[in-house]
């Protein structure tokens, strides 16, 4: 948690100092919080995706887990470490929780509902945010304008990327926990794919293993957003939506345009 806080602070702080001391504002008026507009496009896209996926979202999740951990500790009388493990397991939606405790008080049940709502909203927000990133739009624009290309990405490329992700994190966990590679892969497959009955009974015990497990599950939210962004931004998918709900008629389009113009005029007058 503190490493993520330090990385985020140093990165954004260095960019802020650079903006105020090293460049003129009129030269780069649209500087970003995570990237500099003067960087090459590929670097900007990669850095923004990496920072959001591996730094910003885990950092926010860590802060939230700290807050909920304190609340659970007060409500249930658990040690803070146990409360934190329970909170981060809920926020990261781990299929294999880091602790087996369950709330036994009314306040604990209320916190369970609230943290589930928070996890739902956070997942939806991060998914939507990542789907709008420039690198995702670029990939979507690069998909050929055919249904075969869409199906190729959905049925072949995305499953391969997910499988690669499962293999990498599974291998890392197997090294940290002393498992066989097969056990690590089965564990990550159960967590990543949300299999109701886990494929292995292995449990993560080491602190680094827990960190990898949580990071992997939080990263899945960004992967989902990227997949949604690629699919939704494709012209064939947009055409499918138009065929399902129809297109806006010319009269309706003029009405919406005039309505927006009237609202803008009233706002300017106010």
UniProtKB/TrEMBL annotation:
Disordered, as annotated region: 248-270
Entry keywords, A to Z: Membrane, Transmembrane, Transmembrane helix
Transmembrane segments: 46-72, 78-98, 110-135, 155-173
Name of the protein in its database record: Uncharacterized protein
